[in-house]
Specification:
Largest sheet: 2 strands, antiparallel
Structural class: mainly alpha
CATH architecture: Up-down Bundle
Radius of gyration: 18 Å
Order of helices and strands: EEHHHEHHE
Low-confidence stretches: none
Number of strands: 4
Number of helices: 5
Strand content: 5-15%
Number of domains: 1
Distance between the termini: 61 Å
Length: 181
């Protein structure tokens, strides 16, 4: 199987189901941003040694791949629901709650940084927020697969708390945002 097909050379791409759209179409932007997030999660995964976090990150990657496939489906064709369950969101919430219990209360805004994996978790958070915004924009034009918005919203919260957790585990102080006076 060849990787290149030459069918996209004129700026069009195929959706699952056969129709072709511009590579700048909001649907392509949505699944492309989810793919970008998945790549950054892979980098974060490979930068960590904490096995429970690595396992959860790989589960998240599988869910995101399924979300990307559902977003790449032709809306005129049969629906392709993502492999998302209520338990996937519950798992994120339970992980957020467990990490939060170990952390000092958040009393200020914090800046991304302080340690490489902390920064990378914040990159995942911000790309996840962008994916969420693009899926919202898609949903305003066409129907987005059910559960995707809730999952992305909770996932960005997870990455925020994971960034704090990784900094805490590394013994680095959070960088407090201080406005100019």
């Amino acid at each position: 199987m060849k990787i290149y097909t030459k069918t996209g050379d004129a700026g069009q791409t195929g959706l699952f189901g056969g129709s072709r759209v511009s590579k700048s179409h909001i649907r392509v932007e949505a699944y492309g941003t989810v793919d970008e997030l998945n790549a950054f999660i892979g980098l974060l995964h490979d930068s960590l040694s904490e096995e429970p976090v690595r396992v959860l990150l790989q589960q998240i990657q599988h869910r995101l791949f399924s979300i990307g496939a559902a977003l790449a489906a032709d809306p005129a064709g049969p629906p392709m629901p993502p492999d998302l369950k209520t338990s996937d969101i519950t798992l994120l919430e339970e992980s957020i709650d467990a990490m939060t219990q170990e952390l000092p209360p958040l009393r200020h805004f914090i800046l991304p940084g302080g340690f490489p994996t902390v920064s990378l978790a914040h990159v995942c958070r911000t790309v996840c927020r962008r994916a969420e915004r693009v899926v919202v924009a898609l949903h305003e034009q066409e129907t987005a697969p059910e559960g995707v918005l809730q999952y992305l919203n909770r996932l960005s919260d997870y990455f925020f708390v994971l960034a704090r957790h990784l900094g805490h585990q590394a013994g680095v102080e959070e960088i407090k945002w201080t406005p100019r006076t």
